[in-house]
Amino acid sequence: MRTQSPDTSLAAERYLIERIRQAPASKHFHLIQSLSQRMLSGQHAKQDARMEAIHTITCGYGHHIGQRVQRALTQYPLWHEQAVDLSAILWPVMQALKAAGISSYIGGSIASSLHGMQQSARDIDLVLIGQQSRSLSLDTIFAPLSETYLVEPEEIQQALMEKRTVSLLHLGTLMKLDLIFPETSGFDEAMQVTLVSLPLDERYEPFPVASALEMAVWKLVRCARELATRPDGMVNDGEWNDLLGILKVQGPRFDLVRFTYWAHQLGAEHLLPLALDDAGLTSPQTSSSRLRIASRKILVEERWLLSIFFISFLVGKEALKGFEMNLMMIVAHLSLA
User: Fold this and answer.
1) Is there a domain that residue 53 lies in?
2) How confident is the model over 212-219, as a mean pLDDT?
3) Nearest by Cα to 111 from 98, 100, 124
4) Whole-model pTM?
5) 3-state class percentages of the chain: helix first, strand second, coil last, to nearest 5
6) How many CA atoms lie within 13 A of 47 on its CB side?
7) Which long-range contacts (CB under 8 A, 24 or more apart) does 309-315 make?
8) CA 175 to chain centre
9) 45-54, 81-90, 114-123, 207-216: which has the highest mean pLDDT?
């Protein structure tokens, strides 16, 4: 197993991993939040706090968002940066999306940190799924957010139509929140049924979060895609360490069969041996016959779970019970065939 840092001993890292495994999700979440505090430097006491914030945001998020922040902060002459409260930033947006008929779940660096080694969150990713018809306009739905978020309903409406990422900005903390549409047909649908519900903050209901499997597959695929474009043949250390952190912390609980299956499906199988070796995991048996059997079982199970997911979304859990029992019998029969 390769340690996350060259100056960390193997024994020390194994001890850390065991402590992470024992800690509840809420503790992981609060550590991520602490690491994500981005208080302005204050090195220039005479410099206006708003100008320093605009400069920081422009450097971090780009000129377009920097201009939006500059226009917004002119309305708040006494503005000062607040401490990051990830739950309080996430919850109102997720509820507004829900009112718009759109389900969402936490992805990105927060999800990978919850399943692996904790790190700071430069921004927040919300993956959008299950858009339904709505009776209210987006202007009405997002109006309550306008006091605390830099939000433009027209831009969100256009992004929903074009299925592209759109960004909101929490004005108090200047934390960017990206609304992301799934990109990879088949994989994204299969991952929706692996979502986990985690109690991250006692003030709110459990939050839906991308699974460790989804985050690990995406990290591996992103490393493979970046490797293909780099002339030096090097893997991005940040992405690679994120992936290893997930694999190490999940350890024996991690579904290596599905991980291997999706790595092959998405063209990242050449990095599998290195990832598993660096994480100290044993590769599952992947002979062609065993892989075909595993793939068939995965497809059957995921079609069943996906059916359950969408029917539950449409008709509710109570109406689902009878259908679920019949479908489980069918799947059991297919799996034994």
Assistant:
1) no
2) 96
3) 124
4) 0.79
5) 60, 10, 30
6) 13
7) 309/192, 309/193, 313/103, 313/130
8) 16
9) 207-216
